[in-house]
Amino acid sequence: MAQNGTSVSIQDLSLSFGVISVLHTLNLDVAEGEFVVLLGPSGCGKSTLLNCIAGLLDISEGRIFIKGKNVTWEEPKDRGIGMVFQSYALYPQMTVERNLSFGLRVAGVPKDEIAKRIARAAEILQIEPLLQRKPSALSGGQRQRVAIGRALVRDVDVFLFDEPLSNLDAKLRAELRVEIKLLHRKLQNTMIYVTHDQIEAMTLADRIAVMKGGVIQQLDAPQTIYNRPVNRFVAGFLGSPA
Ligand code: ADP
Ligand code: MG
């Protein structure tokens, strides 16, 4: 749950791809420790917004703050964020252990510290028996656990998830949904989680930002959105039948 202070602050953010405007003067404050879900139909700009926070896109206008620091022009690696994608993005030629340690080695983290962090992440995510395997020898759910582990070992303040469960079957999706919720309880870090799945949004979020056409239509607790949608779009997408 939200504790104190603002973790991620997005101020008047606009982004265009060429002449096509995708995000329109968007504002969003996420509290420290809060779990915010960005929910909306395909193409509404969820991934674009997440990629802006991660520093993977140059924004057209606006500013992004993380823990009070203006990171608008900071490199992704300097933003204190960890990102988990839909498609795992693991290195196929490396073992799970190598996948987990690679970024830390590059960053010059000492060996014993790396070992400590991998042991902790492996325990939390229950992937200890998998450490010497290659990604090709893992199931989809196991791969996604490793992908989460890669963010976990970096000891970041903010986790960004882009539809991390949408490649999994319904049973695994339900399982990992519970695990992500438990992970958040345990770590108490800030999580911004993109999905088009209403159940994920309702069960995971402290607050849901419902997006349409590059604009946040409503930002509220799940129950508030469900019971008191601000417009027909939100009602149709998530609200109780009017
Ligand atoms: P979502 O994640 O909500 O499905 P995206 O953020 O991926 O939506 O995309 C928002 C809009 O921006 C879509 O219309 C998409 O086609 C467009 N878009 C996304 N990435 C690019 C890009 N690299 N170049 C041009 N248009 C893009
Ligand atoms: Mg997307």
From TrEMBL:
Entry protein name: sn-glycerol-3-phosphate ABC transporter ATP-binding protein UgpC
Gene this chain is encoded by: ugpC
Domain of life: Bacteria
Keywords attached to this entry: ATP-binding, Nucleotide-binding, Transport
Compartments where located: Cell inner membrane
Entire-sequence positions represented here: 1 to 242 of 364
Membrane topology field: Peripheral membrane protein
One term of GO molecular function: ATP binding
GO biological process assignments: carbohydrate transport
Domain ABC transporter residue range list: 8-238
